[in-house]
Design goal:
Layout (H helix, E strand, L loop, with lengths): L1 E5 L5 H9 L4 E5 L2 H10 L3 E9 L3 E2 L3 H7 L2 E9 L3 E4 L10 E4 L1 H6 L1 H6 L3 E4 L3 H11 L4 E5 L1 H6 L3 E4 L9 E8 L12 E9 L5 H12 L3 E8 L7 E8 L5 H11 L2 E11 L7
Parallel strand pairs: 1-2, 1-3, 7-8, 7-9
Antiparallel strand pairs: 3-4, 3-11, 5-11, 6-9, 6-10, 12-14, 12-15, 13-14
Helix pairs in contact: 8-9
Amino acid sequence: MKIAYQGIEGSYSESCAKEMYPNSKTIPCKTFDDVFKMANEDEEVMAIIPESNRTTGNIGVEYLIFKYRLNIYKEKFYPINHCLLGIPGSKVQDIKNVYSHAQGLSQCSNFIKKNNLIENVRADTAGSAKYISESKKIEEAAIASKESAKIYNLEVLASKIQDEEGNVTRFLMMGKKLLQAEMKKEKYITSFLFKLKSKPAALYSALSGFAIQGVNLTKLQSYPEKNSFSSYFFLCDLDGHIEELKVQKSLEELGLHCEDFHVLGVFISDKFRDK
């Protein structure tokens, strides 16, 4: 099994992929678009994508979900424990500049402010750790995982520096092949996207079926169509399997109000949702 991810060895995406599929071959990619493109062009490659974070919200990959429309196979809520990594012999008080992905910096804003650190945004957390190992400057550090410290021979100067103790990112495993979880005695998520017809109260009317049928929506996010701020796509998750009668009736009602509708996946709900 081959799994493409954004970043380099030691990234949280790679670590999550390895936890989900220990024997998989992971393929690093420079950008999220590269990850989607690789999975879209090769059915044998899956893509692992960080979709949202419990602390900072959406990661910002929605436009790629709309663009490529890959199928979602699984979700995984993965704990993110950030560390401050420096060259061997350095200490927290030595650090002036800190490097990480924008999400990593945002998730550790309290620690950064407390220690008067200057933020430097880079493409990914593991890449920041690699940069620190190569720069060898005592006043510079990276915010990344403990795994990155091992890979790039850095010292953990501080552990669990994220603002929220329960810092968790939701990852999606996606691919080109059409696979759908068979309905059994499990909890399921049905994920889909839609674009409404242009008419007054369209969203209110479109969502009424879910209320009538008692179907719970766990995610509803709008994203503007390309080159437009008057036309929007919506990304949506609901509790339930698409083969359930109440889900089918809700989606049928939604479809009456849509110009575009596409099911992204039906998959088992991560047990983290039950906590």
